[in-house]
Amino acid sequence: MAEATNLMKKAAAALFPESGEEQASFLRALLAPGPRGNAIVWTVKPRHGEIETLPRKELPPWLPDFIEVVAPGVKVGLSEAYRTGDVYPLDFSSVLTGSALLAARDSLPNEARVLDLCAAPGGKSILASTWLQPGLILANEVEGRRLGPLRHNLSRCRIAAAHTQRLDPEEIARLAPGAFDLCLVDAPCSGQSLLAKGIENLGCFHPSTVKGNARRQARILASATTTVAPGGFLLYTTCTFSLRENEGAIEKLLDSHPDFAPVEVPHLASLRSALATFPAYRVYPHRSPGAGGFAALLRRDGEPGPGTRPPLSKPLLDYPVIGPASDDEV
Ligand SMILES: C[S@@+](CC[C@H](N)C(=O)[O-])C[C@H]1O[C@@H](n2cnc3c(N)ncnc32)[C@H](O)[C@@H]1O
Questions:
Q1: Ligand 1 touching residue 98 (CB < 6 A)
Q2: For residue 53, is it within any domain?
């Protein structure tokens, strides 16, 4: 097992101030990673048994039957169902953090508009689309080289009413203020949980890495808030453990945006963050089959509904994924 650096030990002590034992098991999960749970999302009627998965009784009862957790060692990417876009694999932490959108589902208007501000390679868009069946999903990705895989995945999985864009979040906020019922910010982050998957991520605990990411997250979140319609939702998720990038980012947002309030996610109660005074949720690699992550769901004041949203500026919908103008060029 690799040695924990002082920065990792410091982080573990900040996360679990009351238990040296828990600090040690957290560090072990990062330094000597075992096999992690990969989930699959069926984008068509599930064909249970086609891919070897864990028995349903081992999964949380709220998980719908179109999400399964694959048995250790199964390579989903080699399956026919993956090739045809009938399943999409996701780390189980992404399912847990993404599932916070369920707490918004019943309050969304019909034909809801979803914006996925940091979308590539598409996992959260696919999850949101399957779970919410919105009227429209705009999947945005700033990095050109990640746009192709995003469009490929959305198209392969036949995600309905999906469009893509490659815009800075500030530009989307300028073009579409108050236009979305749900904005997903699956933020670029220091990615500390990648270690639990055995992926090298040098410097991910360094204060300068965390600070740089926190600044970028603050900018993205500021734009995200502008895009949310009255009564609409903002779901913030990361795959890191840093307090500053998680609870800290949300605290700052709430201070500067009194029209947003945190929303309780009842089915995630057991994951409630002990580091926040408001509802926020953490997944840890030593407690769950996933690698780790964070989620906070916020709601904007006001009455939801199609009548309260401005029309979407036409150029935002110039690149449908499936439809008359569909091709893989953008
Ligand atoms: C955690 S990944 C998103 C994963 C994706 N949501 C999924 O579930 O497949 C974060 C994404 O944010 C993008 N990103 C980087 N800088 C950004 C910025 N300044 N504004 C918006 N997105 C950014 C990255 O290129 C990356 O694709």
A1: no
A2: no
